[in-house]
Design brief:
single chain, alpha+beta, L-arginine/glycine Amidinotransferase, Chain A, Immunoglobulin-like, 8-stranded antiparallel β-sheet, 11 helices, globular
Amino acid sequence: MKRYLFVFTLVICTLQLFSQITEEQLPNYSTAKEISELPNYVKPVPKGIITPPVSPIRSAAEWEEMQAVLISWKTGYELFLSEIIRYAREEAKVYIYCSDSNTVKTYLTNHSISTTNTYYIKTSMNSVWIRDFGPNNIYTNDVDSLYLVDWVYNRNRPLDDASPSLYATRVGLPLYQCTTAPTDLVATGGNFMSDGFGTAFSSHLILDENATVTAYNSTPKTETDINNIANDFLGITTYIKMETLPYDGIHHIDMHMKLLDEETLLIGQYPAGISDGPQIETNLNYVLNNFNSVFGTSYKVVRIPMPPTTGGLYPSTGGNYLTYTNSLIINKTVLVPTYYTQYDTTALRIYRQAMPGYRVVGINSNSIIPQSGTIHCTSHEIGAQNPLLISHQALPNTDNIITNYQVNATIIHKSGISSALVYYRTDTTQPYLSAPMLLTNATTNTWTGEIPVQVSGTYVYYYIYAQSISGKTQVRPMPAPLGWWRFRVYNPTNVYELSVTNFNVNIFSSNNENYNIVIRSCYDLDTKISILSTDGKKIREVYSGLWAKGTNEIVFEKNNIAQGLYFVKVETNRGTQVTKFIVK
């Protein structure tokens, strides 16, 4: 009830603003006029295939190879959209929905943006928020054929909702639509993320909007119904759903989180107790305590600030929902929203550290963020027609100085794989060496190679290369050799390199529910933070990922931890530190 009360209040308080918004500048949320007209809304007639695909399907992840980006061009957002186009066209084709292509081309040219690799779909559109109503990518048999999937857009904007069929027709791709009863799924792309291997994330918005019959759908759905539709049309076998946030009026998860790869979650972080911070932490703990990555291990977590406005306002105090997670990964480039230098420099550094070798570009989003969205919300990637899929779990730091380091990867192409190599080096100024990878499990398409054992203190940088029988080549990470994975070989007899002068941990509680862990570090560290009982048993893992240099803070909820003495264990690539604390 509180959730709906907040949305209703938001609508009423901004009614005057809506009256000034033209039809060209519809926000990401529903306007008061749209809400009043919803009971009479008539959905577009389906023009795709309304039965699910027959063969096994896989929903693609955003970091996979992409052939195109879709943009909906609208008056009032031209400067912002043109900057997305400036960089996206260098990585993929850009299809632009617009009423007049000559107007768009002239605007791009006048702003020194080449129109090479841009294409135009002439049509009127309701809004710019193509992430939410654009088509989703699925493949049959992992990589065989690319299909598109459409759902019922959760806004009464019929031109937007009908647009996926225009692109599908333009490029000749099959379009499957879960838009007709009993599979009429009301959904939005900003509230859906896939890991590429059957796991998806959403907020409870997906449950709320399908629970009853509305103008959008004609059949109510249980969570089991929704899971079945997601499995049948998108290949989702594990559907993780998190509580909605109290101050995010649209409840789209891309406003505060992002999957960077199969096992890494980029999570927006507010100062302790501020705005949506407590609910984000609760949701993260829910995920970490109940789900593993496709590799069967805990998700890694990378934190990134959720900044206030320049006036110091957060969403809970009337500020815009400034976010850095609302970014777009398009092949070797990551487009990141920016607002002002104080926080932008930190956010861009975090992306570059988490995704080495990628071109990370900041795009000023101050003009569009008041409408509750930015780069991810206004773009939609389209998967490659002939992908060569490489999936690998990055090797962890190790104290192994005796045996070679085994590198396993899932490598798939529809023609088969003819060869694969792992490239490695221990000095970034020297060329890479290579070692062969062999098919070790045909059922799982697993290829295995070995990096030669190294001495203590060595950093190893590596990437994977593969060639298909048809001759296509691919690398992972995609920007390789500029991009790489890295692990460290440390001395098993001298791993405690941290000291009170360069690293310290402080734990305190400001109330009876939450505990704050504040860590000051002189280094950027690969870090795992766990709560242990006095007998050394792990009670909970509260963080795994990059811990940035400087002073940073993480909050975890006491939940079901009983009163007594516990330890916080902080494991890093430079050593381990254990600190005791008392739960009262």
